[in-house]
Structures are given as structure tokens and as C-alpha cells.
Design goal:
Number of helices: 3
Structural class: mainly alpha
Helix content: 55-70%
Order of helices and strands: HHEHE
Oligomer: single chain
Amino acid sequence: MFIKTRVTVGLLISLLSTFGVSATTSEEAAALERITQEIRFLRDEVKSIQKLQRADELESFDYDALSRDLNEIQEAIERHIKTPSREPKSVAPLSADYDRAN
């Protein structure tokens, strides 16, 4: 489960490298929109999985940090779709560290 989540987040983070390229075609914009839909799905999954977490876990997964990172990626993609530019957009640094000691 943890590995699957980490791989998924890794793939999403790799998408950030496309932000320097303008979404000039409708096909590219549609593909980027599909990615934002997938991120919405992932955020819902994160919320559901977080409810399964035991409160007494000594080392827990930081679902809030993951949600923030997914949100940041989604917002960056949506900004790019709305206002494509060859200029890199500023994106807040992602946490990418989801281990949390209680």
C-alpha cells in the first residue's frame, strides 16, 4: 500500500516537468484535465484511507501532507491549462515525506 502510494505520488511529481511546455493543443489540454480528474480521485482515496488509520500508531503515514501535495500539483496543472505559458510557474515545494512519528 505504502509503495503504491509512493509510486503514484512519484509519477505525479514527474508531471511537474511538463509545466514549461505550453498546452497549445486541445488534445494536450484534455489530457491534462484527465490528470486533474485522477488527482481528485486520489485525494478522495487518501481521505478514505486516512479514516482507516489507527490513532495509536507509533509511526503513521502523513495523509495531510500527501493531500496538500496532491492539491498543489492539481492547482499547478489547472493554472497551466487556463493560462499556458512557456515561462515556468512557481510551485510550492512538495513535502514528499509522508512518514510521521507520533
